[in-house]
Write a structure and sequence with these properties.
The longest helix has about 30 residues. Helix 1 runs antiparallel to helix 5, helix 1 packs parallel to helix 6 and helix 3 runs parallel beside helix 5. By secondary structure, the chain is mainly α. The protein contains 6 helices and no strands. The termini are far apart.
Amino acid sequence: MNQRQENLFQQLAHYRSELLHLLEHVSEEKANIIPAGFHHHIRWNMGHIYLDQYLWIEALTKEKDAELDVFKKWFGFGTSPIHFDDETPTFEELKTYLAQQPSHLKERYGHRLAEKFPPIDMGMQTIEQVLLRTIFHEGMHLQAILTIHRCLNEATDRA
């Protein structure tokens, strides 16, 4: 793995640690509240961030991961917390999945970052390009989590 690719995994780990740091200040109760004007809660956003990286890699490589199928019904595009059931990972379980994901991605795909596949959306044809895109996506959902958290705290302060 070259230095640029090492830097990519350092960035994945760094941005994920920022998310996990924020989640330390969120209670499980608040993680499951959908504020007025929102479609999702913090817990859904957590699962969606986790799933998104794997979905894009799957879309690129065409390598199916059966474990993801159940995550798709809860956290995939177009889903909402109304799709949750007793099997949906808890807030704490999702924090664990998110914490482990960067090292899992490095272990599983680090040696394949430059491997070329037929291009998908936005012309992406390597796992490295997909991971760069998912960093952007994670940032969008981190902002959503921050906004939801702020709304919940403001509502608590007013009460």
